[in-house]
# Entry
Amino acid sequence: MRTYLDCIPCFVDQALRAGRIATDDEKKLKGILDEVGMMLRDIPLENTPPETGMLIYDKVRKITGVFDPYKKLKRESTEKALALYPSLKSKVEQSNDKLLTAIRIAIAGNVIDFGPNKSFDIEEEIDDVLTKDFAIFDYDEFKDYFGNTNEILYLGDNAGETVFDRILIEELKKPVTYVVRAVPVINDATCEDALQAGINEVATVISSGTSAPGTILKTCNAEFKAAYNKSNFIISKGQGNYEGLSNENRPIFFLLKVKCHVIAQDVGVNVGDIVLKGMNV
Amino acid sequence: MRTYLDCIPCFVDQALRAGRIATDDEKKLKGILDEVGMMLRDIPLENTPPETGMLIYDKVRKITGVFDPYKKLKRESTEKALALYPSLKSKVEQSNDKLLTAIRIAIAGNVIDFGPNKSFDIEEEIDDVLTKDFAIFDYDEFKDYFGNTNEILYLGDNAGETVFDRILIEELKKPVTYVVRAVPVINDATCEDALQAGINEVATVISSGTSAPGTILKTCNAEFKAAYNKSNFIISKGQGNYEGLSNENRPIFFLLKVKCHVIAQDVGVNVGDIVLKGMNV
# Structure
C-alpha cells in the first residue's frame, strides 16, 4: 500500500507517542518532532507506510537512547493475553466452527496495537469480534487453500496478539512457520515476545529480518524471503503487514481489524471492520 | 499560552486540512506538509500556538495560491447563522436572565471553528450550551466589571460565530468595539465576515491587524493596541484569542467552548466544557 497524505500527520503523532513511552524529557521529545519534521520531505508517497515507520521509530530509539520503548507494555500485553488463553481455548472448543472461531480470536488479538491505537479494551474486543460480521469474508477460499497446503507461513504482528495467534495455530494442526520482526518497533512481536507467548511450542519461529512495523520485502532477510517465495499459504496479521504486502503477488490471506481510515479506504471497508481477505487466490 | 508538544502533530494535521480546502492537487498538498515539517524545528515551545498557525496558514496560501481557502465555508456559516438569528433572539427574550442566555449563545457559536474541529452540528450545539453547566463561571465578576464600564472591547473569533456574538452585543446595550482579523486565516472572521453578519449595525468594527488565528499582541496594529491598552472590559471569544492572551495583564473575560485537550489542560477543564473565565479581575 502506498503512503497517503493522511499518513503524514499520523507519523508525527506516532513519533510523539512513541517518544513519550521512552522519555518524559521535553527537549528530547521536541528533538524527535523536529527530526521527523525534516524527514517528511524525503518520504515519497510511493513508499509503504511501514518503511517510514521504520525510520521514525529508529529516530525515537536514537534520540531517546531507549532501544525498546514498548518492552514493558509488550510484556504486560503478553501476560494479560496468556491469562485469557484458557477462556479463549474453551470458546474455540465450544463453537460449531472451530477454525472460524480461532480466526476470529486471532483477529480480536490484533487490537493490541500501540501504533494507530491510543487505547483499547481487549476483553470487549473479543466479545465484539466473536460475533460481528466480516466486512470481507474469503473464508471459502481460505479453507480451499488450507486444504491444499502442507505448511503455513504465518506473519505475526504485535506482542500479546501472539497468544491469540497461538490459538489459531493450534487449530490449524499443520506445520506453521511464525514470523516476527528482527528489531523491536512499536509493540510489534520480536522473537522474545513470541517465546513468551509459547509460540515456539506450536510453530517454528523465524525473524523476517526487518525493523519496519510491517513486512517490507526489500528489508527482509534471505531466510524469510525464501520461505515467503515458496509458500502457497500465507496468513498475514494486521495493518503493517497488509501495508507492506498488499501489492505483492503471493497468495496471502490478510486477517485484520481495521484501525484507521486510510487502511479502511485502501481495503474498501470501514474503520472498526474485521477482514479475512484473500489476495491472489 | 505556550505551545505544547501535542500542538505539533495538530499543526501538521491542520496544514493538510486547510490545504485540502484550497486544492486537491496531491503534489501541492505534499509540498505543504514538507514545508510545514521543515518549519517544526523553528517553532519554540515558548511561542503561542497562533503564532505558528499564522506561519502555517501563510504557507498554505503561498503553496496553493489560494488567499482565502475558507471563504465559501465562512460565507455559508454566516448565512446559516443568520437564518438562526430570529430563533436565537427569541431564546434570549424568553429567558429569565437575558444577559446570561446571550453569553451562552455567544459560546455556542464558538463551535463554528474549522481549526481543531473536523465536524460540528450548530443546532445541537445551541441546545447543549443553553443548558449545560459552566466548568468555569465567573459571571458575578463579569457583571461587576460590566456595570463599571462604559464601553466594551469584543475580540471576535470565527465567521458565523459573529452572528451569535451580535446577539450578545445587542444585549450588552453599551458601545462595543468588535475586533476582527486583518487577513483571512482558517475561518476566522475578517471585516467582510463581520459586515455580512451585520456587526457594523451594532458595534464599531476594527481590525486587530494580525494574520494569526488568535490575538498575538506583537502582530497587532497600533489602533487595536491602543484600544486594548485602554479598555477595562474585554470579552475574548474562542481558543485562538485565549492562546494569544492568557499570559497578558489586562482584565479579560474569556468566553469559549473547549475543543482540544491541550487547551483543556491549560485552562484546567475538560474537552467539551464551556467557560466564562475572568482573568486579572
